[in-house]
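User: Hi! I'm working on a homework problem where we have to compare a predicted structure to a textbook description. Could you give me the structure for the chain below?
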Amino acid sequence: MQSSRSKTIKAHIAESKDALTKALAKFQGQQTISRGKEDLNARAVAVSQAAEEAATSPVIVAPTQDVVVAPMQDFGVAPVTLQPGQVLLDFTARKVREIRGEVRDVVATVIENKVIVQGVIHKQIFYVDLEGIIRHQAEDLRFSTFLDVPGAMPGMNVLVNPVIEDIIFRLINPPSRILLEKVVLQIFVKVTETVQVQLAVGEGPLFKTESVIGEGSTQVLSETVVTLDNPAEKVAEIVARIQDVTSEIIDDKVIVQGIIHKQIFYVDTSGISRHQAEDVPFSTFLDIPGAGPGQNIQVHPNVEFVGFILEDPTTLRQKVVLEIFVKVTETIQVPLAPGSGPLIAIGQVVGEGTTQLLSDTVVTLNQPAIKVREIVAEIRDITTHVLADKVVIQGTLHKQIFFINENNIEIHQPEDIPFATFVDIPGALPGLDVQVHAFIEFVGFNFTEPDQLNQKVVMQFFVKVTEPVQIQVALGDGPLVKVEEVVGENSKQILVESRPEVVVSPINIERILLLVGQAVGEVVERQIIVENTVELPIQAIKVAGITATIEDLTAQIVPNGIIVQGNVIKQLRFVGNDGIVRDISETVPFSLLLNVPGIDPGAEIEVEVTIENISVTLAEDGLSVDQLIVLEAVASITSPNGERVVSVVTNVTGPGISVTRIAVNALVVVNGTVQQQVVEVVTDVSGPGITEVIRETLLLDVVNDGNPNPVPVSVVTDVRFSA
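Assistant: Happy to help. Predicted structure tokens:
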């Protein structure tokens, strides 16, 4: 969900003494950073847009508030302070044997020029306790990030390949219950758009594609009358969607069936907004010459129109118009000619093969039988594993046995038989794609005893192994095929670590203003992901909608950047389990830093913040809603000529914080005037909770270095803490 509303502000800091004094007062008011819990409801994941940063350092999935983590957990022993990335084991460990990880529940959302990726890293920790027993502990880590893919648009297809590259772990002061672990996750996305083109045939390797047999569309009118549960004053809206769509091919025709799921939002005679759901089945068919059983079907249904009339307070007449588009294709493999046509993602055929498998079993019937009417068999739950030159196939043979007992009553008895087989395919390698077509060729049976039934089932498996490639092909007079044209792709690394609950401890950062040479500003932009969870007042069955705007937008020039702050004002509509539609409002604060090296305090800036996307997920218990907000900030800067003022950190104090400082002779801005002073500036800082130290190299006169001239000194200009 997107909002086009945004706020634009202009800030101009004059070069006058009065303006400098006001700016200094604002700066001094921000020296002590100590945020309360009410400020922590938005967890921002900052992603730099700078190409240099993206190439040299992974993005850390981490909140950006300046806090120190110190949660207290009661496990019957002394309270334990956990830092980001630390996990408390259930038992004291002598050593960690291994940690296994897998990526689950990956969800990708395509928005304009970006792909949002969310998921869960499921970890299994195996460690040895003090008694030598190997213990197991599981943990789930959620992650979210986004990748820039220019040209991507909602509705396009996306391929996501997340790979755990490494799991870094070590025990803190073993034997111990505190385990430090970090997961390095590589995420690759490819965005494609389905197109239909006529390609030229070449003489090279074979490629697997879909040849278009035919396509067509039809409209379906569904008219129903529903009785409302409560008398209505008016109907606000009806939201309809199509679900549970099934299709079947017969000769020259395609039959389509499904359900129209409608959500009726109305206001009852007491002024209460209510919700009522209705499911209406539909069916239709389309003439597709050349279509036949065994071919592939793609069905694209769309709700074109929803109309309604409230005939009386409880009788609602509705009309829904559907448009059903159907494409029938057949899987073929053809040699394609390279050329200057579209860049497509396609599977290059590595090899294929077939095998047969006999399942010979004896089942004990739950009662004696005089005859078997029939056995219906199907193959389910097929999984594959590609090995070197082989493909292993596993699955379940599901049988339904219909037999007549001694009282001439027909009885049904199901049976599931697991199976495994393999097919030799030279050239197959782990990681390649595999397609399996399984068939039941023969079902035979005979009685050995009145309750003992011997069954023989012959299964056939056709396997094709392909390697995903992308090639630029030539257009020609070859077959009309449906292919995936590549829009763009991208990859990034993120570091995923656990985040303990936040307890805020005061961190004091002291700064001074130094007068240095001026640098020219620039136009910059940056995006952040803001995650938060809304606790609902009652249990919800669905989210009806969400709207959001940006308000209270402010921008402040700080050394080497612009701090942009504001609030996302959200209106969330949800349906309670009583069918009543409720609204709740929420204000989510955000802040981000636009990096502008050398920006002048007297610069004129214009900042725009836009809500690019909002994703919402209702929790399984219906008591909370997880939200993911993508914000983009763009600043245009006009810098005057002259000197610039840089904020330099002179000290950082807090639990476990240590600093390194150096004395310099510099021009210091004090109460609106410039004074020559000897001051100590921080060159390094470390301690719990620190995620980033921002530095800048300045020409400074170091005290007692034996050199009367200024020398380059790397000083700390900002310190960021995790939450």
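For your comparison, note the following. The CA atoms of residues 606 and 630 lie 20 Å apart. The chain has a mean pLDDT of 82. Good luck with the assignment!
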